[in-house]
Amino acid sequence: MHTRSSDQLPRTAPLIVLGCQHVLVMYAGAIAIPLVLGAALGLPKEQIAFLINADLFASGIATIIQAVGIGPFGVRLPVMMGVTFTAMGPMIAIGMDPNLGLLGIYGATIAAGIVGIIVAPVVGKLLRFFPPVVTGTEIMAVGLSLMGVAAAWSAGGFGNPDFGNPLYLCIAAVVLLSIVLLLRFARGFLNSIAVLLGLLIGFALSGSLGLVSLAEVRDAPWFGVVVPFHFGMPAFSFWSVAAMCIVMFVTFIESTGMFLALGEIVGDPVDEKDLVKGFRADGLGTLVGGIFNTFPHTSYAQNIGLVSVTGVKSRWVCAVAGVILLLLALFPKVAIVVASIPPCVLGGAGVVMFGVVTASGIGVLSRVDFKATGNLYIVAISLGLGMIPVVSPKFFSKFPHDLAPVLESPVLLTALSAIVLNIFFNGVGSSAETAEELRLATKEAEAA
């Protein structure tokens, strides 16, 4: 029986070291979601710290399921799972509803995970509605919509009475410059964790200037367990669930390109059955996330890039990385320290992280034929409509409040517009052609 490249098991010491490397590469992205959402919703530091631990815990479980596989769940490739930025807009809209808050986010996440598991077998048939012109536009919308968050962070954070203080802007600039220099001159592993190192530099600088308070660290326990429904039983709203289900489907489309490209990188081709198992794991990871107080999950592209760069193809490396994430989630003091990072530090890193998301969308769009009738207008109109809630937050204020998760989400508005316009201009292609286009677009983006 032929042994797949991804099934090979390295020796114990290299296995642990390589697992740690995967954790470090994805750590900045993993903790960014709780930090962004916590700042946007005005949560206290203790709750943000808990969200960080919950995020790491659920990411660890989802990674193990995806990499190792459990029955019909898991693509069984070297994949790291984490919370997706695609869900950020809808989550902020849901969380800012006083009738829903965090519990509404968790209810929508749980429902989306269940729906994702159920519809996973038919997703392959629906790929035809998501060619690169649609997915690239949607990914661009994710990055562009979050730039306002990066700007607010850089100026001191939401609700800061000293908002715009030049000191905050200077610290954000130092972080940004540090990351740029590391990306330009560092090599190998240091280059791959440039964002994390930039955050550490900014944290140290802010601490030296008296902008960091670690008083809560003393009172936090050394050891803590992430328990289900920590904040209470989830709340369910039709439009919130609908919005998150759309996010779930978009993550499936993103995962398709990643799985196909990763299968080619490791030399283990991915077929439709493998894709369905991967989609089910995405859905199960999202369900687990909602139960354990965190958010929708997807595969992390930066770790796929790491597999390509290092040439280490074993899925067991990512499985060990998942165990490391579970262990990290057990230490509340560490999460409190992370939650103490000043917003201005996050702002400098946010410009890079959100900009990379935008650039990834551009990379996907690079395979689109803009000379063909309609493609230019699909991107232009969809982005224009999607950015309305960003540039004019009160634009839909007279509509029913229950529609806010959809109407106030740049990502969902862009996705819905792009899907409809693509059908209008281009009709419906085949799922096989779309899957191949997504694979090529993702592979080229990873190479870049």
From TrEMBL:
Q: Quick one: a GO cellular component term?
A: plasma membrane
**InterPro entries documented for this protein:** NCS2, UacT-like, Xan_ur_permease
Which top-level group of life is the source organism from? Bacteria
A Gene Ontology molecular-function term?
xanthine transmembrane transporter activity
Protein family per UniProt: Belongs to the nucleobase:cation symporter-2 (NCS2) (TC 2.A.40) family.
Per UniProt, subcellular location reads as:
Cell membrane
Q: What name appears for this protein in its UniProt entry?
A: Uric acid:proton symporter UacT
Q: How does it sit in the membrane?
A: Multi-pass membrane protein
What are the alphabetically sorted keywords of the record?
Cell membrane, Membrane, Transmembrane, Transmembrane helix, Transport
